[in-house]
Amino acid sequence: MAPLSLPSNVHISQHPCLRVKLSQLRSKHANARETKALIHEIALIVGCEALATGLQTTSSGTDESPLGYTYTKETITPSRIALVPILRSGLGMLEALQIVLPDSVSVHHLGLYREPVSLEPVEYYNNLPYHRPSSQPTESAAHDLAILLDPVIATGGTSVAAIQTLKEWGAKKVILISVLGSEAGVQRAAEEWVEGVEVWVGGIDKECDARGMIKPGLGDVGDRLFLTIGK
To answer: Are 219 and 180 in contact (CB under 8 A)?
Structure first.
């Protein structure tokens, strides 16, 4: 395959283990249990790669080791982080990112589906805390970093809609983590908010078919995870 010409804020994993796992995930013979495990494992790898550059560390005082030696503790920055899985399929990536992050963070869900004719996104659920009470009136309910979880970036419409929502919410930066994207869909998502978005994907396929599904792709990840194929 010829080298892809994608924006500088797009990062494609080259991890050999991930590439094999992605090949296994493509198979129509992978059952729901295998699909769940593979998505979790791929999200774990891509999540580690994304957060290695998206986060920093800072000292946070001292503690004592089991042998009685004093050491300097570290914590991550920014400290105000939210995980935002896109329903349904983003739930399959959630636990992996919770494992990678050293501390518990807020989880806010966005529900989006593609209208089957226009392929445009429709929002049906949003629990971002727009009206969360705060002891500091000047403090925004938004977080410094929103980690958006969307396993498949096909046309890019769903990711773009989610990025727009997070930007309007007040997030200062968005890291979009995905298992697989189409070339055009990933480019569309990356260009929506160039200065505020970093896109990390496990792999890229060239194009989508007339139904807006990636070729060869992964199929409908939500249906594969939750056994709702043929609904």
So the answer is: no
Q: Please give the Cα distance from 174 to 163 (Å, whole number).
A: 7
Q: What is the DSSP letter of 56?
A: E
The Cα-based distances of 51 to 44, 78, 81, 119, 196 in angstroms read: 11, 11, 12, 31, 15
Say what angle helices 91-100 and 32-54 make with each other, to 10 degrees. Answer: 40
pLDDT tens-place string over residues 26-80: 999 999 999 999 999 999 999 999 999 999 999 999 999 999 999 999 999 999 9
Looking at the whole model, is its pTM more than 0.70? yes
Contact at 8 Å (CB) between 213 and 219?
yes
Report the C-alpha gap between 35 and 39 in whole angstroms: 6
Widest distance between CA atoms in the chain: 65
Give the C-alpha separation, 44 to 38, whole Å: 10
Of the candidates 39, 52, 145, the one whose C-alpha atom is nearest the C-alpha of residue 93 is 39
Alpha carbon 225 to its chain centroid, in Å, reads: 16
Cβ contact 212:155 at 8 Å: yes
